[in-house]
Amino acid sequence: MAGRGRPRDTAVEGRVLAAAAAEIRQGGYDALSIDRVAERAGVAKTTLYRRWASKAELVVALITNLREEVPFEPTDDPRGDLTKLITAIAANLAATPATLIADLAAAAAREPRVGESVRALWAERHRAVTAVVAKAQEAGLVLDHVSPAVLVDQLVGPLYYRLLVTGEPLTPDYAKTLVRSVLGPEEPQ
């Protein structure tokens, strides 16, 4: 049975999320206005509310979109998987204005609904990466006494530290150095 009504414009979501990101960069989460997002995206306010019932839900969609830009498909090579993931996260963060990341993090800290959604969203990814670290541990790349969950924090945390605190560049070489620092140098083959 065919759907009712006019089909959804698939470009609308992209325009709205880009407009929301621009609004947050301009004035932060607190100043984010659904009216201005709708105007900037060239859509009716009702179009936004049909997809996202609140400003908080729109911000969660924006965060979800940022996370989806860094795909993660584990293979049988834990070192390669971790290097590829950390390098991709670094590249994604480097391409995203630090003010946007800071405001999204602040919104997650201040707005319980946003915080819960963000934590749930990242918990799934954290579990997947932790499983890869556990595989690296089984392969002898990580010492037995190391907590895989803490090691994931040690890989990802420095990226946000550089982005938000020191302002140092997030380069592929830095990402690879992070992985080497926790897994040790790759053995010659």
Number of strands: 0
Number of helices: 9
Shape estimate: elongated
**Alpha-carbon distance between the termini?**
58 Å
- Biggest sheet, open or closed, and with what strands and sense? none
Please trace the helix and strand order, writing H or E for each element: HHHHHHHHH
Low-confidence stretches: none
Q: Decide which structural class fits the backbone.
A: mainly alpha
State the helicity in percent bands.
over 70%
Question: Can you walk through the features of this model?
Answer:
The chain is mainly alpha-helical. The protein is 74% helix and 0% strand. It contains 9 helices and no strands. Helix 1 packs antiparallel against helix 2, helix 1 crosses helix 6 and helix 6 crosses helix 7. The longest helix has 27 residues. The radius of gyration is 19 Å and the shape is elongated. The termini are far apart.
Summary of the model, kept short:
This protein has 189 residues and is mainly alpha-helical. 74% of the residues lie in helices and 0% in strands.
